[in-house]
Write a structure and sequence with these properties.
- This protein is an all-alpha fold.
- Among the domains are: 5-56, no CATH class; 81-120, no CATH class.
- The protein is built from eight helices and no strands.
- It has helices spanning 5-15, 24-36, 38-56, 63-71, 81-89, 98-120, 129-132, 137-147.
Length: 155
């Protein structure tokens, strides 16, 4: 296995100059490239210098961070969906218009579901609807005429 100079530079940037930190499956190829290439040797010397400089830096004091984390407030817990639904239905602000329209909207849901299901059902599926309208037209006209008021206004 061989690696490119670009991959060797990525290894140095990610893991440092110490070959013990490099990934096992790339270590042999990286050491071989280091022996064969002068540009790889220059990159490795730069990485060694950076590692030495970083090793000389003192470790930061995290006592302030510890006290901040330990004394800080915990994040708010997420409410259950039932509690969120109840808060939506009954808002805390009594003067809000939502106090009235939200329960009304929720009460309309079963009504709308009933209308939707009722429109899909065929209630009169066993009755022939043509029988309901088979009355002779003449009889209907006579009945309507007899109900009309044709009295004349006498003067």
């Amino acid at each position: 296995m061989t690696i490119s100079l670009q991959r060797f530079e990525q290894l140095l940037d990610a893991y440092g100059a110490s070959p013990q930190r490099w990934p096992d499956h790339e270590r042999a190829a990286a050491l071989q490239l280091l022996e064969q290439s002068s540009s790889a040797a220059d990159l490795w010397q730069s990485a060694q210098w950076l590692d030495q400089q970083l090793d000389q830096l003192p470790a930061p004091d995290f006592m302030y961070l510890n006290t901040t984390l330990l004394t800080g407030p915990l994040p708010a817990r997420r409410k259950k969906w039932t509690d969120q639904l109840l808060e939506w239905l009954m808002p805390a602000q009594a003067r809000s218009a939502a106090v009235f329209w939200r329960p009304a909207a929720l009460a309309c849901v079963p009504l709308m579901m009933g209308l939707a299901v009722g429109n899909q059902l065929e209630i009169f599926s066993d009755v022939d609807t043509t029988d309901l309208y088979s009355v002779d037209m003449e009889e209907t006209e006579l009945e309507l005429i007899s109900l009309a008021d044709y009295s004349e206004i006498l003067q």
